[in-house]
């Protein structure tokens, strides 16, 4: 064990990269680390607990059924951040309005506490996505909506936790991407994937092809392109779609690929949420050498107008994203 770096040590080491940092920012990451262990533990035994599987009988602001674990994960992350007292507010996919925390906190957090939650009941990977900003309003006053409506380029940190065959926490503070695998035996995250980079090209495309006829001509043409045998490789691209953004993104980050959730006739802005999903994943993708686009512009440069705003999303290996958006840019 003498050669391992734990997430706790890593956070403290990296604190020195933020001159004048009082350690408050590190405390947010520690809160997220703790909540993700609690959620991971609960997800691992979800199949055993009849009272944690299934729907909670409520809907979130977007009219989606909330799963019991959505509600549970949301509570755990809010609690862990609240008690650290350095966060002045949280915007969560599961709450209609932002949550006001400590007025003296300097930071705000946007999160998707449980991504891909419809996959829990069938034992498929799910995740948590988070993003941290410095507040704009004065310290000592209640957090405002404007504190959350910042461009993705303003993110101080972003990351995700994947509850998969193992639990991993992957994050960036703007100087590369690092991945930590959870060792449940000793209860620590260990640096297993230092300085993650995604390849410029890849073989995998991930989108819900059931939406083919609800998608634009450009997207349909892209899907046909992906299915065409490439004379150089003598094969088409490989289709992989889990239906948990975190899991699809994580695989593509490691193997090289593209994830797309386009505009459709029923969801003209796509399905994924700018603050909770696209900006954090976009930041990580860029930090790993990839790209994130709405098809028209860099995701991180979209000026948010609403907390629960959605945008079409193209993310992954640089050349693959450039190719895909070339099909839709004039639409
Ligand atoms: P969430 O569970 O947080 O609502 O997110 C689900 C998202 C995303 O994880 C996934 O990629 C996408 O929805 C799947 O949507 P479709 O079922 O429409 O393909
Ligand atoms: Mn989600
Ligand atoms: Mn969710």
Protein described:
The protein is of the alpha+beta class. It has 2 domains: 7-193, Fructose-1,6-Bisphosphatase, Chain A, domain 1, CATH 3.30.540; 204-326, D-Maltodextrin-Binding Protein, domain 2. It is 29% helix and 23% strand. The protein has helices at 7-15, 24-44, 68-82, 145-148, 217-227, 245-255, 274-287, 318-328, and strands spanning 55-59, 65-67, 87-92, 99-100, 107-115, 126-134, 157-163, 167-172, 177-183, 188-193, 204-206, 238-239, 257-261, 291-293, 313-316. The strands form 3 sheets. It has an 8-stranded mixed β-sheet with strand order 4-3-5-6-7-8-9-10, with helices on both faces. Strands 12-11-13-15-14 form a 5-stranded mixed β-sheet, with helices on both faces. Helix 1 (7-15) packs antiparallel against helix 2. The longest helix is centred in the first third of the chain and has 21 residues, at 24-44. Bound molecules: 2,5-anhydro-1,6-di-O-phosphono-D-glucitol (AHG) and manganese (II) ion (2 copies). One manganese (II) ion is lined by residues 70, 93, 112, 114-115, 117.
The domain tally reads 2
The CATH top-level class label of the largest domain:
Alpha Beta
- The secondary-structure class comes to alpha+beta
Record the strand order, biggest sheet: 4-3-5-6-7-8-9-10
Order of helices and strands: HHEEHEEEEHEEEEEHEHEHEEH
Q: How much helical structure, as a percent, in the residues? A: 25-40%
State the distance separating the first and last CA atoms: 54 Å
Separate helix tally: 8
Major beta-sheet overview = 8 strands, mixed
CATH topology of the largest domain: Fructose-1,6-Bisphosphatase, Chain A, domain 1
Q: What is the CATH architecture term of the largest domain?
A: 2-Layer Sandwich
Q: Which hetero ligands occur in this complex?
A: 2,5-anhydro-1,6-di-O-phosphono-D-glucitol, manganese (II) ion
| pLDDT < 50 stretches | none
Which range does the strand content fall in? Answer: 15-25%
How many β strands by DSSP? 15
């Amino acid at each position: 064990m003498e050669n391992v770096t734990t997430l706790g040590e890593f956070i403290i080491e990296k604190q020195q990269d933020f001159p004048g940092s009082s350690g408050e920012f590190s405390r947010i990451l520690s809160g997220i680390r703790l909540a993700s262990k609690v959620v991971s533990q609960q997800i691992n035994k979800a199949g055993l607990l009849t009272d944690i599987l299934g729907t909670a009988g409520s809907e979130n602001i977007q009219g989606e059924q909330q799963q019991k674990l959505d509600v549970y994960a949301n509570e755990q992350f809010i609690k862990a951040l609240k008690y650290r007292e350095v966060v002045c507010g949280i915007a969560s996919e599961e709450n209609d309005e932002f949550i006001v925390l400590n007025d003296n906190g300097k930071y705000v957090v946007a999160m998707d506490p449980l991504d891909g939650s419809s996959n829990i009941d069938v034992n498929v990977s799910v995740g948590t996505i988070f993003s941290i900003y410095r507040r704009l309003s004065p310290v000592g006053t209640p957090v405002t909506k404007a504190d959350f409506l910042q461009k993705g380029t303003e993110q101080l940190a972003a990351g995700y936790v994947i509850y998969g065959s193992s639990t991993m926490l992957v994050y960036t503070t703007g100087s590369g991407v690092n991945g930590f695998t959870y060792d449940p035996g000793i209860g620590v995250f260990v640096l297993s994937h230092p300085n993650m980079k995604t390849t410029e090209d890849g073989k995998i495309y991930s989108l819900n092809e059931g939406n083919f006829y609800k998608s634009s001509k450009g997207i349909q043409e892209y899907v046909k392109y992906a299915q065409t045998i490439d004379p150089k490789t003598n094969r088409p691209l490989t289709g992989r779609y889990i239906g948990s953004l975190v899991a699809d993104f994580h695989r593509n980050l490691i193997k090289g690929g593209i994830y797309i959730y386009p505009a459709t006739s029923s969801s003209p802005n796509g399905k994924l949420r700018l603050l909770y999903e696209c900006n954090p994943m976009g930041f990580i993708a860029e930090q790993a050498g990839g790209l994130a686009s709405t098809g028209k512009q860099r995701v991180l440069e979209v000026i948010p107008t609403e907390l629960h705003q959605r945008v079409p999303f193209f993310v992954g290996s640089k050349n693959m994203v450039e190719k895909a958006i070339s099909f839709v840019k004039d639409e």
